[in-house]
Write a structure and sequence with these properties.
3 domains; Sulfite Reductase Hemoprotein, domain 1; alpha+beta; binds iron/sulfur cluster; 14 strands; 14 helices; Alpha-Beta Plaits; about 375 residues; globular
């Protein structure tokens, strides 16, 4: 620990002085864990070479891990009474209670389940659904990812608790916009908010995103940040009666939302929102190694409160995987083994993808999203 008071203050925030906060049993056994045993869904016994044991109980959090202070107090009480006074937030948006006996672990499970929180998410199961924050604290949201996560969680809960078996680990990310703060596309199933039409420019708010008028007159169009960031050249400057205006060419826009992410003068029609669904990504370096997901559905409408279209596609993908995968085969490995076309055929999207494949890359724009969605919608009858 440094003696400089300013540095010491910063050290308390980040990086955390881990030693100071670790429970004694964890400190004593740091680097000594040699074995583990599973005790039903969500409970793992970790065994140290010293003979000591820690039991973890994994509990699903609400979408985006939002907990009220009241619930946190109840959890803290359980952790003090039945655990070792410690809680651990996981990457998959779950909370782990740590305790020192199986009896106490089972009691923790019983108490949190009676509060309505499922326990599970280990081994061949759904490990959780990560959601970004979206509208609560974010200004670029396309869809409300936490409410999509809630609708998915209600249907997929048996895969988390182990009531329904899966071939291998499954993780899902739900992001409110293409910035993908829920975790990117290197995951089994990624759901990403996408606008269904080009943005609308609010002229009155543009001055915050452009150089001052006098500077704008003097610099080349290609030097203006907003023009530079548009990947397709859909944004350009137009000089009109001594004024410089920003123009959007809808035919060139691919709805990537880069402009919106950088400037709040870009808005979208809230009635025209949807998601892209990508499948077959993973971060793990086991098996065939890490990889990005592939677009299965480029655009589906996001219709609250239950988001039936999105839930139906995700459920269908999981059902196909459950039915045809070999034991231990992640979704990515299953798709590799049977081939993309067969997978798409099993899901029931081959006609949509036949159309999609014929469209050259540079024109696979939002204009086709709706057409493909309509084709998918017709096919859905047979799903
Ligand atoms: S993914 Fe988009 S909507 Fe979600 S928090 Fe990030 S920027 Fe906001
Ligand atoms: S959404 Fe993307 S392609 Fe369309 S104008 Fe904005 S930056 Fe350009």
């Amino acid at each position: 620990m440094t003696s400089d008071p300013k540095a010491a203050r910063l050290q308390k925030v980040f990086p955390v002085d881990l030693d100071k906060f670790l429970p004694d049993i964890i400190k004593r056994n740091y680097g000594k864990w040699v074995d583990r045993k599973f005790h039903g869904a969500g409970i793992i016994e970790h065994i140290s070479e010293t003979g000591e044991r820690v039991f973890t109980v994994k509990v699903a959090m609400p979408p985006n891990a939002r907990l009220s202070a009241d619930t946190l107090e109840k959890f803290a009480d359980i952790a003090d009474r039945l655990g070792i006074g410690a809680l651990r937030a996981t990457m998959a948006g779950n909370l782990e209670f740590l305790t020192d006996s199986l009896e106490k672990a089972l009691k923790i499970k019983e108490e949190v389940e009676s509060m309505g929180f499922p326990v599970g998410g280990w081994g061949p199961a759904m490990w959780g659904i990560n959601s970004c924050t979206a509208f609560l604290t974010c200004t670029t949201s396309v869809v409300d990812s936490p409410s999509i996560t809630k609708a998915l969680g209600d249907v997929l809960k048996p895969y988390f608790t182990g009531e329904e078996k899966l071939p291998a680990k499954l993780r899902i990310y739900v992001s409110g916009c293409p910035a993908m703060c829920a975790g990117g596309t290197a995951i089994d199933i990624a759901i990403v908010g996408q606008w269904g039409a080009p943005p609308i420019i609010r002229e009155e708010a543009l001055s915050y995103c452009l150089p001052p008028p006098k500077a704008l007159e003097k610099i080349a169009e290609s030097q203006v940040f907003l023009v530079q960031i548009c990947p397709t050249g859909a944004l350009s400057l137009r000089r009109e009666g001594g004024r410089v205006k920003l123009t959007l060419i809808p035919e060139k826009c691919i709805n990537c939302a880069r402009c919106k992410e950088n400037c709040d003068a870009f808005d979208y029609d809230p009635e025209n929102v949807g998601v892209a669904i990508l499948v077959g990504g993973k971060m793990s370096n086991t098996g065939r190694g890490p990889r990005l997901g592939r677009v299965l559905i480029p655009w589906l409408p996001a219709i609250p409160p239950r988001y039936e279209e999105i839930v139906a596609v995700v459920k269908r993908v999981i059902d196909v995987w459950r039915e045809h995968a070999q034991p231990g085969e992640r979704l990515a490995e299953f798709i590799d083994r049977i081939g993309w076309q067969r997978f798409v055929g099993l899901v029931g999207l081959e006609k949509v993808h036949a159309v999609y494949q014929r469209i050259p890359d540079h024109v696979r724009t939002f204009m086709y999203f709706r057409q493909r969605y309509e084709a998918w919608r017709r096919l859905r009858e047979g799903i």
